[in-house]
Design a protein that fits this description.
The protein has twelve helices and two strands. With 320 residues, it is mainly alpha-helical. The protein folds into two domains: 3-108; 121-315, no CATH class. It is globular and about 65 Å long.
Length: 320
Amino acid sequence: MNATLHIETRLLSEEVRAFLQRIDPIGWRDGRETEAETRVDRIRSRLHAVARAAEGASPVAAPGWLDSLIAVFDRAPASPTEEPRKAWARFLREVQPAYESLAAWLRGTGVAVPAVRPTNVKRSLFHVASALLSLTLLRLLPEKWMLVSASGAIALWAWSMEIFRRRSPRLNAGLMRFFGPVAHAHEHHQVNSSTWYVTALLLLAVFAPRLSAEIALVVLGFADPVAGIVGRRFGRTQIRAGRSLEGSLAFVATGTLAGLGAAAMFHSLALGPMVFLAVVGAVTGAVAEVISTRLDDNFTIPVTAALGVTIAGWIASIPL
């Protein structure tokens, strides 16, 4: 491994990641195009540094994504433009796949590189719909063995697709085209978030009490997309891995309301215990979101929230 290439590539990934976060449409501010152009110039300089470092690298070590990333940044919007927000949003969609190719190369060298998740309203709606569908399944299947069988079959299909698409680039391309409106670019190279989600559903079906599972599902389905939107639009106080304090507070507030709604709809507990369990589910889910860098939060949030609610219910002697 060329050490200079490795260092320059890590610095480049940090520059590109920060750039993508700044031009996300939901956080765009008037006048930000000047800052965007300055960042593009810095990234172009960094790309030239990577290219120089790659000149002495072996064919195996040389990054295959370099030419495509250089070509993308050569197409950056030129100022002035009549609708800078839309122009830079289109550019974000071009840069995102190239950044994920860079990130995948770095991950292959053992470097943990956060994925960038731009605002995607369709994905947020898909999050909510998945939670409601899973909640419906949970209520319609009265016996535990039915729930385990159904969720197990879905998880088996999902992991089978993961295996097959790794062996077939054509299948992978087809699946990603199908899920394109709701998929993030990094899912071309990593296990799909939906696969992690249905895996979490299987674990909830096997181990979680019904109320714990219900709260966990709505915490993920409602709080996670709201936290993303609030964090991108209003996030100022960064915590880690792109998460902000403002987004986490929105997660807790939304998760508490969603968990309380699910508990009140399906169970006859007193208000105090319901609020307590909803808060525990929301807070543990928010913590899981913040610390999830290697594992997908579509897995860690519902599993952690369900575990938190179960433990809290056991300590407080609340029937779940």
